[in-house]
Please model this.
Amino acid sequence: MARKSKTPRWLEAARRRGADAPVGGRADWLARALGRAGVMPRTQAEAAIRAGRVEVDGQVEVEPFAPVGPGRVVRVDGRECSLDTRLWVLMFHKPAGPVVHGSDPEGVGTVFERLRAVLPESLSGYEWYAVGRLDRDTTGLLLFTNDERFVRHGTAPETHLTKRYVARVEGRPDEAALQRLREGVELEDGLTRPAEARLREPEVVELTLTEGRHHQVKRMLAAVGHPVVALHRAAVGRVVLDVPEGTFRALRDGEISEGLGFRVEPQDVP
Ligand code: URA
Model:
């Protein structure tokens, strides 16, 4: 398999053209910068750039991967757009059904479509990234952001951000099963980290993890003899789901910093 290049695509594009990489904290490629700044989502931005509708510093730019740094004047259809980035993190209540994937070969619908269907116009120009995954049949708290740095923060194993799940299971877990969940369960990809586990009802387990491996809750509960019947994510960090199914709200800066442990930089605040 070909090794993935670590060089950002905008930097490769800059090198191909013999240009200097832009200097500055948030240098990026043009289409992505437009998506992050809420001008238009990335695929739309790529099409607009290729169609010659976008100018950088007075020159039409037809390369979506053209590097742009701070201070550039960008116009779309002649109108100047700010590439200043405000950090957004949205809490979305995922219903059972849609997949957390951009591609949808089975045609079941994606969470991105569900989110876009309820976004106001002021937020529809952003490119939205899901922060981690939930299975198709899992309901509950799914975070979206316009900033890939937040995606990395929310999904990096070393962040140890807590995720609280509520699982209806087969059978009635006893204290020994709960203790195994707390101490760590041996799965095919290794021992799970210590977790919190308690019974909410005889067949409902609340499990709080500090990692997010593929199908982890289902695999852990199956390993202790109680396969999951229905799974819901109730909280991430100290942010507790509080919106009805299928709806969203934007998190406040304090929720992002204190609730999710992400340092909000001055440039992230409007
Ligand atoms: N663990 C699972 O098994 N599924 C999810 O959707 C999330 C965590």
Notes: DSSP finds nine helices and 17 strands in the chain.
